[in-house]
């Protein structure tokens, strides 16, 4: 899954959050894994962590 796909999915899931905020959060989460040795699950972790942040912000 590409970051753009993750972003689109989360924008649809959290319409009350501006897309620019979703984009920034996705990029921040992705940056956290820049030096990870195993890259296979990075998109999954990015999606999970960004979703958690969006849930916190939307409450």
Write the layout of secondary structure elements.
Blueprint: H1 3-13, H2 19-32, H3 42-58
Helix pairs in contact: 1-2, 1-3, 2-3
Q: What is the count of structural domains?
A: 1
Main pleated sheet: none
Number of strands: 0
List low-confidence stretches.
none
Distance between the termini: 27 Å
Radius of gyration (CA) equals 11 Å
Label the structural class.
mainly alpha
Order of helices and strands: HHH
Percent in helix: over 70%
Total count of helical runs of at least 4 residues: 3
Mean pLDDT: 95
Descriptive report:
The chain has 59 residues and is mainly α. The protein has one domain (3-58). Helix content is 71%, strand content 0%. The protein contains three helices and no strands. The protein is elongated. The model has no long low-confidence stretch (mean pLDDT 95).
Q: Could you list some keywords that capture this structure?
A:
59 residues, 3 helices, mainly alpha, 71% helix
Short description:
Helices cover 71% and strands 0% of the residues. By secondary structure, it is mainly alpha-helical. The radius of gyration is 11 Å and the shape is elongated.
